[in-house]
Design a protein that fits this description.
The complex is a heterodimer of chains A (about 450) and B (about 220). With about 450 residues, chain A is of the alpha+beta class. Chain A folds into 3 domains: about 140 residues; about 80 residues, Helix Hairpins; about 150 residues, Heat Shock Protein 90 (2-Layer Sandwich). In chain A, about 55% of the residues lie in helices and about 20% in strands. Chain A is built from 8 helices and 12 strands. In chain A, the strands form 3 sheets. Chain A has a 5-stranded antiparallel sheet. A 5-stranded mixed sheet of chain A has the order 7-9-10-12-11, with helices on one face. In chain A, strand 11 and strand 12 form a beta hairpin. The relative contact order of chain A is 0.06. By secondary structure, chain B is α/β, with parallel strands linked by helices. Chain B has 2 domains: about 120 residues, Response regulator (Rossmann fold), CATH 3.40.50; about 90 residues, Arc Repressor Mutant, subunit A (Orthogonal Bundle). Chain B is about 40% helix and about 20% strand. In chain B, the strands form 3 sheets. A 5-stranded parallel sheet of chain B has the order 2-1-3-4-5, sandwiched between helices. A 4-stranded antiparallel sheet of chain B has the order 6-7-8-9, covered by helices on one side. Classes of the chains: A alpha+beta (about 450), B alpha/beta (about 220). Chains A and B meet through helix 4 and helix 5 of A and helix 1 of B.
């Protein structure tokens, strides 16, 4: 698990350490360079001052102690071959030519370097020397003094940063808390106020998701409520019919009551199976494997299944055209679509009249068409009939009010569209379903 | 007792009509609000059973219009909607009672009797007058404490006369109460029922008011 806070802390901490080390190092180099200039100048100053001194007494230009302690300057004066003065007798340096020199005396302490200024003046040779180490020590001291406040400031900054990160992460925590409070019952959007700009896109995405969920959930619960309501009438009918059967006295009455009860149960069963079909075709439901579907074969199958039913009702059912055409989609959706359209047509067509079914092609589309000679649907109702449980005035009784909703759901899955129009000679209903054609060989 | 059933579902309506007939009610059945209005204006009903989900004009609208016209016909709403608001709306619009589908047929019959009883201001479910006592709930009749076996039509004639003791009911009124639409009525059917009742109870049980009709006998 990665923690944003932990990662930020590591990056910032190493970053600050590196910056401090680099700053210290560069300050040190810079200071050493500056010190060289300053101290060289000081060496010269001291040498000139000494050479101008009176007699043999040569005082140091300023406090001896300071030079000794801090800069560790040493002065020696020669007259000819004779050493007349040495501020530090332990440190004797051989004669050099006039000017600034850096000297490495390989004495007891190996590699000890010296910076030295030699001045010939009034027959004297004045030499002012300083160990290079003294310069380094001062350089380090100054560099450290510069870096320490920086280090303190760095830690303070890190602390502030961590504090502000914690504060910013609090809004994430709040969002997390709000999400965990969501349930199917509470799908309100998460409050976007007071959120950092960086978090808002995420919250917006979550809110969109919540909205979709809430919509789907509402639809489901409305459907369940409607379904429960629609099942009440068929069930109440069965209950009454059973009551009548129970109270019928003679055989003839019993037989009639029995037939009625059977019809009542058939109707309730049809209602339940229509509800299940609709639930299966629900857009929220998982889409089954898409396959190549043969329109003509499916139409033939439906025709064979409904021919008997039509015959029983005295309706003549014809399959007038059946071109071999295929589309892609779910087999069940196509089956439900065709059977509901053909079943409806037969239901609404009076005995002795005809229903025609056709599968044919246009330039780019495949057409499945069912034409009946029933009462038709007036233009102003052609939108509403696709609503769940919508029944037209004077609709055939005992219908579930779901047939055309199933057709619509199936079409949404198959990707086609339906047009309702007038049937033959302005009579009845013509339902035309159009599918975009599967490209040949594709 | 003649009742009006307003229900658009053919299968349910037919089953309910048969059930109520078995319980001795005379049932007229309309499939929409417009037909129901016509029926109410031409016949006198004891109770109306009303489905709220009618095509075109809704049941609620029908109740409101009837009440607005000061029609006090008792109404029992029969509904597939059991939401609280549906029940409250129905009752508040002027319905007297409601029954949610599916229901026990005996319960509906009991509600019909209760509502019609309340209409005539009777408290008990048993009607007593003189030596005669009837119980519409059980279809039992007693004369001086002894049970009397009556046919459904005979019972209906007796109940109609006992509902309003002292009132004179014409032959046509009794026929109306007894027979629904489409029932075959013999011209002397009411006379036959009256004759049988007098035979089973006593000669003085029902009095003939010449030229007007019949009324219940016994104490004034």
């Amino acid at each position: 698990m990665t923690s944003i806070r932990g990662r930020l802390f590591t990056i910032l901490f190493t970053g600050f350490i590196a910056i401090n080390v680099l700053t210290g190092w560069s300050v040190y180099l810079r200071v050493i360079h500056e010190l060289d200039v300053v101290f060289d100048y000081q060496l010269k100053e001291v040498a000139y001052a000494t050479s101008l001194g009176h007699g043999d007494l040569i005082p140091l230009p300023s406090s001896e102690a300071l030079y000794e302690r801090e800069a560790r300057l040493a002065v020696q004066v020669w007259k000819g071959k004779e050493l007349v003065y040495a501020s530090n007798p332990k440190r004797l340096i051989p004669a050099q030519s006039q000017g600034l020199t850096t000297l490495y005396l390989d004495q007891k302490h190996s590699n000890e370097g010296w910076r030295l200024f030699t001045l010939y003046s009034f027959g004297k040779m004045v030499q002012v020397s300083q160990p290079l180490e003294a310069r380094r020590e001062i350089g380090i001291k100054i560099a450290l003094r510069t870096v320490i406040p920086l280090v303190v400031a760095s830690f303070f900054l890190i602390f502030l940063l961590l504090l502000s990160i914690s504060y910013s992460l609090k809004s994430l925590k709040r969002v997390a808390g709000e999400i965990s409070n969501r349930s199917f019952a509470v799908l309100e959007p998460i409050e976007e106020r007071n959120l950092p700009q960086e978090v808002i896109p995420m919250v917006e995405c979550i809110n969109t998701l919540l909205e979709h969920l809430s919509h789907a959930f509402d639809q489901q619960s409305r459907f369940i409520a409607d379904a429960a309501h629609e099942l009440r009438t068929p069930l109440a009918t069965i209950q009454l019919q059973a009551h009548i059967l129970n109270r019928s006295s003679d055989e003839e009455e019993k037989k009639v009551a029995h037939e009625q009860l059977k019809a009542g149960i058939e109707r309730a069963t049809r209602m339940v199976s229509q509800l299940l079909a609709l639930a299966r075709l629900d857009p929220e439901m998982h889409v089954a494997q898409s396959e190549t579907l043969s329109l003509d074969k499916q139409a033939q199958e439906i025709f064979d299944a409904y021919e008997k039913i039509a015959h029983k009702k005295g309706v003549r059912l014809y399959l007038v055209e059946n071109e071999p055409l295929s589309i892609t989609g779910e087999a069940e959706a196509l089956r439900e679509l065709m059977s509901n359209l053909v079943g409806n047509a037969i239901n609404y067509t009076p005995s002795g009249d005809i229903v025609t079914v056709a599968v044919r092609r246009t330039y780019r589309t495949a057409i499945f068409e069912v034409c009946d000679t029933g009462p038709g649907i007036p233009p102003e109702e052609r939108e509403r009939v696709f609503e769940r449980f919508y029944r037209m005035k004077g609709a055939v009784n005992g219908g579930s009010g779901l047939g055309l909703s199933i057709v619509k759901s199936a079409l949404d899955r198959l990707g086609g569209n339906i047009t309702l129009g007038e049937g033959y000679e302005g009579k009845g209903l013509k339902a035309t379903v159009e599918f975009s054609m599967r490209p040949p060989g594709g | 007792m003649r009742i009006l059933l307003v229900e658009d579902d053919t299968m349910f309506g037919s089953a309910l009509q048969q059930t109520l007939r078995l319980d001795g009610f005379t049932v007229d059945w309309s499939q929409n609000a417009e037909d129901a209005e016509l029926a109410i204006s031409t016949n006198e009903y004891a109770v109306m059973l009303l489905d709220l989900g009618l095509p075109a004009k809704s049941g609620l609208q029908l109740i409101q219009e009837l009440r607005a016209n000061n029609n006090s016909l008792p109404i029992i709403v029969i509904t597939a909607r059991d939401g609280r608001s549906d029940r409250v709306n129905g009752l508040d619009s002027g319905a007297d009672d409601y029954q949610v589908k599916p229901f026990d047929p005996d319960e509906l019959s009991a509600r019909i009797r209760a509502v019609s009883r309340r209409r005539v201001g009777r408290l008990s479910s048993v009607i007593a007058h003189g030596f005669i006592t009837i119980s519409p709930a059980t279809h039992e009749a007693f004369y001086d404490g002894d049970p009397v076996s009556l046919t459904a039509k005979e019972f209906a004639v007796l109940a109609a006369l006992l509902e309003q003791p002292g009132a004179i009911l014409s032959r046509a009124t009794l026929e109306d109460r007894l027979y629904g639409w489409g029932d075959e009525v013999d011209s002397n059917a009411v006379e036959v029922h009256i004759h049988n009742l007098r035979r089973k109870l006593s000669k003085e049980a029902i009095l003939t008011v010449r030229g007007v009709g019949y009324r219940i006998g016994g104490e004034e």
